[in-house]
Amino acid sequence: MKVLIAPDSFKGSTDALSVAQAIEKGILKVSPETDTVILPMADGGEGTMINLVQATEGHVVDVQSVDPLNRAIKSKYGITGDGKTAIIELATSSGIDLLKDDELNPMITTTYGTGLLIKDALAQGIKDFIICLGGSATNDAGVGLLQALGYQFLDENGLPLELGGQYINRLATIDERKVMPEVKDANFEIACDVTNPFIGANGASYIFGAQKGATKEMIKSLDNGLEHFANIVEKQKSMSIHYIEGAGAAGGTAGGMLAFLNAELKRGIELVVDFVKFRDLLKQEQIDLIITGEGKIDGQTAGGKVISGICQLAKENDIPTIALGGSVEGELSELYTQGLTAAFSITNGPMNLNDAMTNSAYLIERQAEQVFRTLIRNIK
To answer: Which family does the similarity line name (predicted)?
Structure first.
């Protein structure tokens, strides 16, 4: 019997590789002869970088960067095992979790730090990028990111714009003469699970501005700034980013990248599935069972999380799929329709969240063992 073990991380407690290894230990306790294949997974959100680094036996690069307020910080990005692709999570340098509540202000926050990570990878010869946009503290249309790569955003006096969303209204022209030459040969896949356009009532500023610290007055100003930016882009590059689905991700960073880089938006789970060649693995390895998992399994899991994506592919190949979760709650009928066979919580009795998270690897191993004992008995 060949079992593919392909979980996401249990966020806050156990990374995806450790989850997979715990599941494997539980299986091998029951049946040492079982053939297991470990493949850490991710959905394009938090943890995608480390999960893909682990899945490809890559490494993490530590680099000096800046936070959303342009303060010096230590940051990091991943490079895949073949040395060809950099995985960058915007949240590591431009994320909302890097700021205190009273520091949140999308008028002045910047994506410049994320641009420094891209710049470092380009300087190392990397040409392919996966950029995960979740968790931003910014609303600067990705201008900061692009400034770090050499793009000059100039006002009517020919002076460079200061960092932050509030200055975009002053944009008059964009000078690309000092852009890093490596940029033109680089390709960017953007993990983007939101469908919001760049501007308007459903755009970046109005939908996400408040959670980043913007008042109603700020939101209106920020949206006006993004519209002005989009108008300049359309005039200078003959490309309209105003209402592209997903262009509003990360305060318009997706739109800015689409306008100036060789970039493509993809749903997070689809990007990861394609990158790790998940479909090919199912066909080539003759998988009999898939065991996946993530920290919480509930009705929202069917909306593009790792378990959902795996279940749909497993169903196409008629492979049963078991999911383990820190908790299993609510109605799972949509997951069953997508191909899930059954879901199990790793907790076996009353315990607080801290205990469950602290002992998650042991709990995962033990539940995997119990599930596999049942399966082996039925198979025999």
So the answer is: Belongs to the glycerate kinase type-1 family.
Q: pLDDT (tens digit, 9 = 90+) per residue, 255-293?
A: 999 999 999 999 999 999 999 999 999 988 889 999 999
The token duo for 292 is 């996946």
How would you classify the pairing of strands 35-38 and 59-66?
A: unpaired
pLDDT at position 162: 96
Question: Model pTM?
Answer: 0.90
CATH architecture label of 2-41+277-379: 3-Layer(aba) Sandwich (3.40)
